[in-house]
Amino acid sequence: MLPSLTFVLGGAASGKSLVAENIIYNSDLQLVYVATSRIFDDEMQTKINTHIARRDARWTTISVEKDIPEVLVKLTNNQAVLIDCVTMWLTNIILDGDDVDLAQSNFLRALTASSASLVVVSNEVGQGIVPDNALSRQFREAQGRLNIALAARADCVIHVVAGLSHVLKGPNQ
Asked: Which residue among the candidates 3, 4, 15, 51 is catalytic per the annotation?
């Protein structure tokens, strides 16, 4: 039985997406992948193609850049849903000049209301230096607040480093 909300975080290219996929893959639920990345260039397309190639026909993919709450309210309790990742989602919100606090509030409310088993992936961005520009600092602060809120709500929190997972909260996966 999957927890209602599992939060997987780690650094860039740490293996967190693969860990998150494996958490729900062996469930008997319908597998849904909510992809949030925008394709800015060939490098991003290659990364996305790598993620797609790992998933088999059991997965349904929903691409959504910002409207995750609209997706979450339509989910059912027979689905296991991977949101990969809220860091890209937050980037889209900030770059489009949307109200970050409102977007985060709506997202967190929708997570709580969803009846699906959810696994949310995010980057840990607070372990580096203080960025030298206002936009980067705004992003880092918003991501930190979102990660704190997700960890507080999650039944299980997993930190991934170099492909190795460490359970910070909840049952051992």
From this structure: 51
131: in domain: yes
% of the chain surpassing 90 pLDDT: 78
Residue 149 maps to a domain = yes
144 in a structural domain: yes
166 a catalytic residue: no
Q: What is the pLDDT, as a whole number, of residue 172?
A: 62
Asked whether residue 170 is domain-assigned, the answer is no
Per DSSP, what are the bridge partners of residue 57?
none
pLDDT at 56: 85
Which residues form the domain of 38? 5-159
- Residues whose CB is less than 8 angstroms from the CB of residue 22 and which lie 6 or more positions away in sequence, other chains included: none
Whole-number mean pLDDT of the chain?
93
Q: What is the pTM of this model?
A: 0.93
pLDDT given for residue 173 in this prediction: 46
